[in-house]
Design goal:
alpha+beta, 30 strands, 602 residues, two-stranded parallel ribbon, AsmA, 13 helices, 48% strand, AsmA family protein, single chain, AsmA-related, 28-stranded mixed sheet
């Protein structure tokens, strides 16, 4: 009796009229993809089988109301679906074969990031990494269209899948640059389980392009793939419209890498390429967990030019800004991390040789970047100089409601001549910078910062003419042999910074000929100087300028305002008269360079 009932149940399962479940299947599909699904008709084609084939016609999934255009998200003229009836009972893979005719898929992503194909359920399922169990797929007379207003890209392509394999071919654009899109894959029918499925994809264009030549764990298993990637673009930001890594605008770029995807993670190995005249190599892993992305890896450059990190458009904007506000010492590099609120990671950086448009004492760079919960720390940070090392720590904290920059840098074993070769002033150089301030760029943050800046140069040399002029001895400054050198005992410069204003405390230059003190302030927001220089000779003066010398302008373009008496015959005659009458000006004694240096560097 029991055996008869079991046999009857099995027979009913093999002959079940699956078309009666059209409404239920519409509901299940709608729930699974988060969109309403309608089916015009659904009938079973065979009569008796545990692997039935069902034909569905006029399947439709509408676009959400906010999406532009009149095309449906998905419309399929006819679909033949083969599945395992027994798997419905056992919980194994159900779908076995799929044949689509006259399918039209139209995907859209809005500028605000909304995706027409995403629903709440589909978003939740996206990270599970399930592998498809499909054994046979046939697609004919079908097209796929995609438009992305957030990334600036689109494609419209014909799709064919048959016994020869998968072929996709169409046209599109990336940030307005035309491209041709092609893809191909091995036949799906007859593909053996456990054997990797080869495929190729290419986006080809003069301005931007990318290829992927690799394999998937199984047919159409885009969540589990590996292969070689190549890419090129006139600007890394243009290429980023394809790879979506949040990369900046740069000079022209060419890259190759080996990549592995094991959804939701990516592994990038053997990354090599060029950006402008810089070369790069490295590796990285990208992991997605709980709505956050973590990137860990290393980047090494044999040669690196910071200007390569600006596109031509970025360079034009920077030039226009310089023309308007003047040349600045502090870079206007953006430090706003708001777009990386869900990104963490650790990246080791090294550049063996730094390239500059002119002379510079900075030769190489290394550092470790750590980003955790909107707080970026670069430590250790090291820049090797022609002679000496600049090292320390840089931190950007986005958490209090906006970027805040903290700088703690130390300069050691350097030489003054390497920074200012045209002055012919030399001496052992050390320094210290400790600044903290809010701002969306380094320049803005420094312009609002508080802290200290200190530089000390010792035991060097200075042209005798320069030393005399700094002692306000105009006569000797003009008549001493231009090749004659004086002793530079020390340069001690300490600035106490409050709310972006750096106040000299003290600034002193002590040579064998004179001693010069500088007082006043530098406004760091625009680097405008309001300083006063007073020089005192250590020996007799030939023609001495009395009083003080104002220094205005900016750090990069100082304006030393020569007093009127030097520019007039009457003033010069007055100085000559004082010299004939005898110079009564007190002489300067040697400064306590050791004590001043210690105090400045505290």
């Amino acid at each position: 009796m029991a055996a008869g009932l079991i046999g009857l149940a099995v027979l009913l399962l093999a002959a079940f009229p699956w078309g009666l479940f059209k409404g239920r299947i519409e509901d299940r599909l709608s729930d699974r993809i988060g969109k309403p699904v309608t089916i015009g008709a659904m009938v079973r084609e065979d009569a008796l089988s545990f692997h039935p084939v069902v034909r569905l016609t006029d399947m439709r999934v509408p676009q959400p109301d906010w999406a532009p255009g009149s095309a449906d998200l998905a419309r399929v003229g006819e679909a033949r679906v083969g599945f395992s009836a027994l798997a419905l009972l056992t919980g194994g893979p159900v779908l076995e074969t799929l044949e689509l005719r006259r399918a039209r898929l139209s995907f859209y992503r809005a500028a605000d990031g909304r995706e027409s194909w995403s629903g709440e359920r589909s978003r939740a399922d996206d990270s599970k990494g399930k592998r498809p169990a499909l054994r046979s797929l046939t697609v004919s007379d079908s097209r796929i269209a995609y438009r992305d207003d957030k990334r600036g890209r689109s494609v419209d392509a014909a799709l064919i899948v048959d016994g020869k394999g998968l072929r996709l071919s169409g046209t599109g654009d990336v940030r307005g640059y035309p491209v041709r899109v092609t893809a191909s894959g091995a036949p799906i029918l007859g593909h053996r389980a456990g054997v990797r499925w080869p495929f190729k994809a290419e986006i080809a264009g003069d301005a931007v392009g990318m290829t992927f030549d690799g394999t998937m764990d199984g047919p159409l298993d885009i969540g589990h793939l590996r292969g070689k990637v190549t890419g090129h673009a006139i600007d890394l930001r243009v290429l980023d419209a394809i790879i979506e890594a949040g990369l900046p605008g740069t000079q022209p770029v060419r890259l190759t890498a080996q990549v592995v995807r094991d959804r939701p993670d990516w592994t990038v190995e053997n990354l090599k390429g060029t950006i402008g005249r810089s070369d790069i190599a490295g590796h990285a892993t990208i992991r997605k967990r709980d709505g956050r992305t973590r990137i860990d890896g290393a980047i090494h450059a044999g040669r690196f030019d910071f200007d390569d990190l600006s596109s031509n458009e970025g360079k034009r904007k920077a030039a226009a800004k310089r023309a308007q506000s003047g040349d600045r010492l502090v870079p206007d590099t953006a430090i706003d991390l708001s777009r990386m609120a869900r990104t963490d990671g650790r990246l080791a950086l090294r550049a063996d040789r730094l390239l500059w448009p002119g002379s510079s004492p900075f030769r190489s760079l290394s550092g470790v970047l750590t980003l955790e919960r909107s707080r970026l720390v670069v430590e250790p940070l090291r820049m090797d100089l022609t002679r000496g090392i600049l090292s320390g720590r840089l931190a950007v904290d986005q958490r209090p409601g906006g970027p805040r920059l903290d700088l703690a840098l130390n300069l050691r074993s350097a030489r003054l001549l390497d920074f200012f070769p045209e002055t012919r002033i030399d001496g052992g150089l050390v320094g210290r910078i400790a600044l903290s301030g809010p701002g969306r760029t380094i320049r803005q943050a420094v312009g609002r910062s508080s802290g200290t800046i200190a530089l000390v140069a010792r035991d060097g040399s200075i042209p005798a003419r320069t030393a005399a002029l700094m002692g306000q001895d105009v006569g000797k400054g003009l008549t001493v042999d231009k090749d004659k050198m004086a002793v530079l005992r020390c340069v001690v410069a300490r600035f106490d910074v409050a709310s972006g204003v750096a106040r000299a405390n003290p600034v002193l230059i002590d040579t064998s000929r004179a001693q010069t003190r500088v007082t006043g302030t530098i406004r760091l927001s625009d680097e405008v100087m309001a300083l006063t220089m007073r020089g005192t000779p250590k020996h007799g003066s030939l023609l001495r300028l009395s009083g003080t010398v104002p220094i205005g302008g900016t750090i990069k373009q100082p304006d030393i305002r020569v007093p009127a008496e030097v520019r007039s015959t009457k003033g010069i005659l007055k100085m000559i008269g004082k010299a004939i009458a005898g110079d009564k000006v007190p002489r300067a004694a040697d400064a306590d360079c050791e004590g001043l240096a210690r105090s400045a560097m505290r």
